[in-house]
Every structure is written in structure tokens, then in C-alpha cells.
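Thread: quick sanity check before group meeting

JM: Hey all, I'm pulling together slides for Thursday and realized we never actually wrote out the predicted structure for the chain we discussed last week. Dropping the sequence here so it's in one place. If anyone has concerns about the input, flag it before I start.
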Amino acid sequence: MKVESEGGVLIVSPPGEEPYELDFSGVDVGDDLRRSLMEIVKARVGPTGMWGKLTAQGGLWSLRTLFEGLGVTRAGEITHGKYLERLMSLPQGTRYTHHMRLRKVVQEIRGVDPEEKSRIINHRVPRPAQDSSRHVITEQEFVDLRRLCFESVQSALRRVKAGWAVLDSYRNGEYAEGTADWEYGTVLDEIARTGTLATRDPSNPGRILLPVSVRQRLYPGQSIARVSAFPLWSHLYPTSDETCAAVTGLIATCGWNATTLLRLHMTNITRVDPQDGTQAAEFHVLLDKPRLGPVSQWGENLHDGDWDEGDGDDAPEPIDARFEVRGDKHSKGRLLTMVIELTEGGRQTLAAAGRPCDNLIVGLTDGLHRGSRTTTRLPIHPWAAYDVAYSPMASWRRSTGHVWATPRALRHYFVVHVHPEGHVASMNMEYSLTDPTMKQLVQPSIAKVLESEFDGMVATVVTDDADIASQAPQVVARGVLEDVEAGQLDTLGSSCLDHDHNPETHAPCRVSFLDCFACKNAVVLKRHLPRNIAIYERLEFLRSYTPDAGWNRVYAIYHARVSSVLERYSQDDVEQAREVVTDDDRDLVARLIKDRWNDDE
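JM (edit): ok, ran it. Output follows.
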């Protein structure tokens, strides 16, 4: 990895890839702070850094967004207040992403007040809600995907083993010189030793010359005048698609994160075979997640019982998506065994070619021309980072019709539906609350409870102020329609039909204006929408820096209530109302929340 600085631009040259630029001239800060930011990002994209191209470009975008018009020229001017002010001005859907990037950079900026830096780093931004329209993975889809991955890896392993068997026979002198098998073995031997083929067409150096018998073997019954030699590599190594199947299969079967899997090395995998042969073989896998700091490694035992490849025509055994059986053809240990055997030839070739690697996942590019862009400068290379695997895996998902099978979706399904006992209750709750299937399963129970309690818990919401009589008939029944329409009964965010009789105490009401959203006496009109948006935004602001315990104890219930009110209006109504929220509205809400909270508090 080569990183150079030219003026306000970082030029990054990843091995085997096209260079790209990170232009810091658009970051609205002073020269010294800009140079400091460049050095921080330079370290993160450098040889020892963890940022790939996409992450680096996203980080630069976040820096531009943070400092644009903020009035910060030097590090000492960065404060939690300014940071929060800018963060809260961003759309809710992007705050989390920006904060996750920026906190890593701010942590390394020298000259920032330690207390301010600590508040920024420890600042909490809620993760945006999952898209409810995303694909819901069914158990059958998950089972079918695992079967596809196992069959793909198994098929590739048989082909690769056959190729290496031919190579072993050639090296043992079992083929007579000049025969078709001998010529085939000669070509495979050169690929296995060097990773490439050196014999080229003098008139076209980009074209590899192959013996006629080898070309006929590759393309039987076809014209052999101009053919690609690339299929020869697949006789010894897994193709790009097969490598994608191996990665996807391990994620779905073992529940590993993609980045963790791609960082897995052979030195982290230990196999213990039972001496008497009566028990299943056991793998101990040490997984690594550097970003978690000191608690970054954990072990996992995977079992693999006796397994017979058969003749290749046997129907695959059924896969149980929820349970693993020792000795099952589709167990975690069995898949790991096949992947190790499938990729071993690639590691041997890279070592022989002077480019040793210890990665578990080693595979081919999707063509010879791609070889010059890999870290090894060869068609065979380690898939050591998600940046390397992202594009081929996306292409593989499209080609197989499993577009939904992203690493994140598979990991989520595994944690919720396959192995929930592998996590503490709080972790399972976090996954389950965002799981589409779980959401669907609990809807009847939620609806039943809400329907039984709804009338006594919430205010009446009127979405059209011209239709108060039909949407809130209690207003007419109590004879206060004209007063409500005239605004004579308004509180901060609603109209109170009877301030002198609290439904719970039957005495004059003395609770906070925020409790109006849970009162039968309250009617929320469309004209109240701007101030209710101001209330929501203020609570969001408080949520951003309030510890979880304090938020849940004091604010969470009010946030939920005002959110439920806003959800009754269309997005257009909310956006139009947001445009007319005044500074006086925001100031009034802030003062009331701060100085006039519930009398019970």
C-alpha cells in the first residue's frame, strides 16, 4: 500500500488496484487542522490501517459534512456542543453513519480538549430503524442457500482434487513424455509452481500458447484457433463463484461476520482427530475482531464426524437449518474441512511463487486480466478483506438469484433463528427487535394489547382540522367545538377539553404538557404539528447525550408518545410543518422541558 500527499490531496495506490484520490481541500478548516486530518486518514488507509477505499471516501465525506460552515479552524475549537449542533442538523437516517466514522477520527486529533473529546467519542447516536420493506428470509430459503453452497464447494473440491491428482501423477513420472496426459501435466505443473504460464505467442504477447492436446482437452469438439487458457487454473483452484459460495456457506453455517471470516488464517484453525476413531473430529477456531480492542478474540469448537464423499451421484442429505448433527454432511466442521482442502493448493502455489499467505480463503479472479490487479499479481490470490470480496459476491448473488443473501442478512438470520443461545439476552433482544420475521410473529399480540388499552392511553389525533367533529366526536359531545377551533383550549401541543378534571385524579390537571399525549381529554390538531415537531426534535437532542438509564427513566416514554402522534400524519404534512417551526417554538419547548418538568420528578 502506497500513500502519497500532494498539497491537500492524498493519492492512495492499493496493491493490484487503480490509485484513487482523497481531496481534503474541501474540508472547511484551517491549514494545520487539515494537515492533521490528512495524517490521521493516511494512517488509516496505509499498510497498517483498516480503511479500504469505500470507507476512506465515506470518512472524507463525513469530515466535509461536519466542518462545512461550522466555523472551526483549529483543533482547540472543536467542542461537543458544536459537534452535536452539526450532527443534529443532519437527516436522521445519516447521523449514525457519520458519527461512527467521525468519532474514530476525532479520537486521534491532537489539541482537542480531553473532556470535549471524551464527550464526542462517548456520544450515543441511535442506529436508524431497519427498512421494513427488506426481504424477509424464510427457513426454506436459508436451507436452499446452504445446500447450494455445500454442493458448489463439494463439486469444486472434486474437480480440484482430480487436477492435483493428475499433477501428482505427472511429477511421479507416470506419464510417457510427449503424450497428451504428459503435456497436460506439464502445463498444470507450471501453473502450480509459478501461478502463471510463461509460453506466449511472439506475435501477441498477451496470448498464452498451449499444446494442441491441452486445448482439445479444454474445448472438446470446438475450434481451438483462439481460446482462453484461463479454465486451466480452475483445474487446481476454486473459481471466483465457487469462492463466493464457500464464503457465503461459512457465514450461513457458522454465523461468522464476513470481515472476521476473511481475516481468518490457517494458524487460527486447529484440528484434533480422536485417537480411537469413535468420536467426531474437533476444530478449534480462533476468530479475531481487532476493532473490539482487548476483548477481540474468541474460540469456537466445530465438530466433523465420519464422512464419505460417495460417487458424486448421491442425493444430498437434508439440511436442518436449526440443528447441527455430528457427522452430518452439512455440518460446520465438514464445510470447514472442504474449504481448507479446496484452498490448500492456492496457498501452496503462492508459497512456491514467492508470495506466501496463510489465509483460509484463497481463490481465483474472474479472468486472467484481473490477475495484475491483485495483491499477488497473479490470478490466484487471498481474499483477505471485504473490499476484495464485495463485488464478486454481489455478482454471484445476482447470478444465483439470491440477491437477499448478503453477509449481514445471513448473520442476522443465524443469530435470531439458528443459534440464539450463542448470545446473552440483551444481544438477542437487539437482533430480534429488528428482525422482520419476529416483527410479524409478535404483531397479533401487540395489536391485542394496544386495542384493549388504546382508548385510555392516548390523545385523539385529528389529521384534518376541518373535520374535527367526525374525527373527535367527544369535542361536540362536550360542547367545546367552537373553543377548540378558536384555540382557546390549546396547550403547547394539543387542545385540552377539560383542564379542571384530570381523568385519573378528577382534580385540576397539574401534569406536564408532554403527558397530554396520553390523556383522553387531549385532542391533537394539525395546527399543533409544528410545535409537536419541535418537541420531538428537542427530545432527540436530549437522547443524543443522555445515558441510557436516564433516558429510559425520564424521557423514553414521552419520545414514544410524540412519535406515535407524528406517525398519524403523512410525510408531506410533517415536512411542511417542519418548515414553519419557529425559533420561538423551539425555545419555548426547550425552556419548558428543562425548567417545568413533571411535578412528580
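AS: nice. The radius of gyration is 32 Å. Residues 451 and 513 are 24 Å apart (CA to CA).
JM: adding both to the slides.
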